[in-house]
Amino acid sequence: MEPWEAAERSITKTYRKQIWAPFIAAVKTYQLIQQNDRIAVCISGGKDSMLLAKLMQLLQRYSEFPFHLEFLAMDPGYSPANRQKLEENARLLQVPLRLFETDIFSVADWAEKNPCYLCARMRRGHLYRQAQEAGCTKIALGHHFNDVIETTVMAMFYGAQLQGMLPKLHSRNFPGMELIRPMYRVHEEAILRWRNYNNLDFLQCACRFTQVSAACGGSKRQEVKELLASLKSGNPNVEKNIFTSLHSVCLDTFPGYKTEGKEHSFLERYEKLEELE
User: In whole numbers, what is the pLDDT of the chain averaged over residues?
Assistant: First the structure.
């Protein structure tokens, strides 16, 4: 059995419950893919995006309706070794990359504050543009279950706001384009197990600012990962509870909230709330 065949088989057999089932659940629950969609699957070369590529290929093969896939990979200024690893893994797993180059790392290097934020925004813009040129109306990213809850905690601790990560959203700067996150319900632990089970070696952190540390340690996200791991040792359901809470927000109990860019206070509907008690 070829490596790509073994990797695919393990998704639907060995990790059917941990990966395939939650992937399908997210696609159906959040209505991420429709008939005749043209979707650009965005590949960074890491474990998440490479698994996403295989999941989307399998879904296309078994789907009850047709849709088209393009596999976009951007070289924002990778080192030759990282560029080579990206291309080799794509060949190994039979992922037909449409590779394009940018100078994002060089531009972001000039940003004294938040180079990672600037880099992320620029990468997203390039991906949308390339997807449009390829005739796509959606881009699929490899954000997973843990990204969702970590982003929520980070927003509260460091951004002073309760903000989640939606499974899909419309692009503000590219009308007609949509972003989807098909691995929204897949746990990172399952992704790691799938990678190790198949003896795969993906890019871990290809950013030139942090590639000295393969795990990209020292970031706020890493701090939150460690905090959640600590809490999980005492409460195994802590991650699940955070995720579930995002789907059952009790808006009537919040003193303030923001929707469609406008801030609101509970005082606006205070009298009405009294009638509901």
Answer: 90
For 120, list phi and psi in degrees, rounded to 5. Answer: -60, -45
Amino acid at 194: W
Give the number of C-alpha atoms closer than 13 A to the C-alpha of residue 49, restricted to the C-beta side: 23
Cα–Cα dist 165/142, whole Å: 13
The helix/strand/coil state of 71 is strand
Q: Which residue is it, tokens 């005492």?
A: 234
pLDDT tens-digit profile of 46-75? 999 999 999 999 999 999 999 999 999 999
Q: Yes or no: say if 139 and 152 are a contact pair by the CB < 8 Å rule.
A: no
DSSP-derived 3-state class of residue 210: coil
Q: Which amino acid is at 259?
A: T
Comparing CA positions, the residue from 167, 166, 149, 168 lying closest to residue 157 is 149
d(CA 19, CA 201): 19
Q: Are 69 and 164 in contact (CB under 8 A)?
A: no
Pairing of strands 178-180, 138-140: parallel
Q: Are 53 and 43 in contact (CB under 8 A)?
A: yes
State phi, psi for 140 to the nearest 5 degrees: -110, 125
Looking at residue 95, what DSSP letter applies?
-
Give the C-alpha distances (Å, rounded to integers) separating 51 from 61, 67, 218: 15, 19, 25
Q: Which two tokens stand for residue 13?
A: 């057999």
Instruction: Specify the residue for token string 């057999």.
Output: 13
E strand or H helix at 54, and its extent? helix 47-62
Distance CA 140, CA 83 (A): 21
pTM of the model: 0.91
How far is Cα 253 from Cα 266, in angstroms, rounded to an integer? 8
